[in-house]
Every structure is written in C-alpha cells, then in structure tokens.
Amino acid sequence: MDIVHSIRSNNKKNLSMEEVIEEIFWSNLNEITREDMISVVKPYLLEADDIREISGIQKLYLNPDGAHIDIFEDIIIMLYSRNPLKFIKATMENPDEGLNVLYIFRNRGVFTDYKIQMNELIENEESSEMVEEIDAFFRMYDSLCHT
C-alpha cells in the first residue's frame, strides 16, 4: 500500500508518525503527485509535535529523490513558526540535517534580523541547556549566511 493511501485511510494508526516519516523518506516521492503532497502528506506532517518527528521531517527535505523540496520547505518553516524551541531542539538532534535546513531559512528570508529572534528566545528560556542550543542554532545560521 502506498504512503498516501495509508495516510488517507487512517492506516497510519498502525504506525507511529516516526515510522510513517521513515516510509515517506524511502518512498519514491516522484510518484506522489503535487496535489497529494499538498492535500494529504503536508497536513499529516504538520501534525508533528514530537522532537523526533520534527527531526525526521527535516530529513525529508534531503530526500533521495530530491522531490517536492518546496513543499518540505513550507512544512519546515511552519513547524519552526509554530514552536521555535521544539524545532531548534529537533535540529540539534541531527546537526547535519539541521545545517541543511538552515539554507531554507536563509533562502526564504525567514529572519528579518536573526539576532532579534535569537535574543527573544534566549530571554524567555530558563534552561541553560536550551539556551546553548538556541545559541548554537543561530551561530550555525550566522556562519552559513556569511560564507
């Protein structure tokens, strides 16, 4: 059964979201129509709320087929906007994918002034571990933008 049919028929309940994301990664994404990506896959992925799920979605941006990159970019930006701290934590789970995801932020102009965003997140954070992750995320972003 293909992944779109599985998501549509709610067979996804037999699999965790992480497992579905892994199946999406290894599916031939060129065989999934743009319409199905937008109407089925994207809404499903936007339900992600767990750090491992968000990390897996970041990996989809680098799918072996190179398919539907713009849709994955939209999803990634939306997940960041919904919960920047959870997104940053997910990015730090797999820094290699995380670094590639930062290209999206740069190329799409997500941050008008990344230092303002960084400082707002740090000001509201009590965990020193999370402050370090926020700092590392934005240092990677700064490094990427100035190379």
Which helices and strands occur, and which strands form pairs?
Layout: H1 3-8, H2 17-26, H3 34-45, H4 51-60, H5 69-82, H6 84-93, H7 95-107, H8 114-123, H9 128-145
Provide the low-confidence segments as ranges.
none
**What helical percentage do the residues reach?**
over 70%
Counted up, domains total 1
Q: Write down the overall geometry.
A: globular
Q: Bin the strand percentage.
A: under 5%
Number of strands: 0
What is the gyration radius calculated from CA atoms?
16 Å
Average pLDDT reading: 91
Distance between the termini: 44 Å
Major sheet: size, sense and barrel closure? none
Individual helix count:
9
Order of helices and strands: HHHHHHHHH
SS-derived structural category = mainly alpha
